[in-house]
Amino acid sequence: MESASENKGSDKKKVIKKDPLKVVARKPFVLESIEPTKDKEKEMAVFTAAKKLSEYIFVVTQNAPAKFRWSIIAKLQNTSIEVVETLYLANFERGAERLRLQKIASTKLRLVDHYAEIGYKVKLFPFKRLVFITRSVVTVRGLLAGWAKSTLRRDKAEADCASGKGEASDCEQKSVQIRLEI
After folding, report:
1. Among 145, 139, 147, which Cα is nearest to 31's?
2. Smallest Cα–Cα separation from 96: which of 160, 163, 152, 175?
3. What's the 3-state SS for the chain?
4. Beta-carbon neighbour count of residue 10 at 10 Å?
5. Whole-Å CA distances, 59 to 42, 56, 127, 180
6. Confidence at 111, pLDDT banded by 50, 70, 90
7. Alpha carbon 22 to chain centroid distance?
8. pTM of the predicted model as reported, rounded to 2 decimal places
9. Are 158 and 126 in contact (CB under 8 A)?
10. How far apart are CA 77 and CA 67, in angstroms?
């Protein structure tokens, strides 16, 4: 009989209290490559690279100290999102407006790089993360420069066709291509 009463007392489940301040270990963020994909059916490489950069910035800064969270971290995250946003807006424009938006995106990329350097200096993240962010910014800026160069070439060709300076066959191909894109 005594053993039965002892069993009742030992059947109580032990409640393990978890420390709410204990940091949960997560799988590390692994980015296979910062180079854009070569698949032509997907979106342009500049968009893919910019989105990967923005995603990486959010992962790197998620455990930042509270004293920096509403200053440098917020600026870094918001500017990285604004880069992607500006690129998408530029994609829906033509001519001078597209070039203006591309220039704004390039300027914002420089700001992302600047904020990342400040983040490193105040020890928000280690040097290797700064290097990755900087390389990603350089990659996106290179892709953006190529896109801007292509836009200038295309605008020049369209202007030549409109003024009658371009060859007739080239102008016909361009007008068909433009109609298909719209």
Report:
1. 139
2. 152
3. CHHHHHHHHHCCCCCCCCCCCCCCCCCCCCCCCCCCCCCCCCCCHHHHHHHHHHHHHHHHHCCCCHHHHCCHHHHHHHHHHHHHHHHHHHHCCCHHHHHHHHHHHHHHHHHHHHHHHHHHHCCCCCHHHHHHHHHHHHHHHHHHHHHHHHHHHHHHHHHHHHHCCCCHHHHHHHHHHHHHHC
4. 6
5. 24, 5, 15, 39
6. very high
7. 30
8. 0.68
9. no
10. 15
Does the pLDDT value for residue 114 go beyond 80?
yes
**Location of structure tokens 């930042």:** 64
Contacts (Cβ under 8 Å, ≥6 apart) of 178:
158
Per the CB < 8 A criterion, the answer to whether 68 and 124 are in contact is yes
Backbone angles phi, psi at 87, to 5 degrees: -65, -45
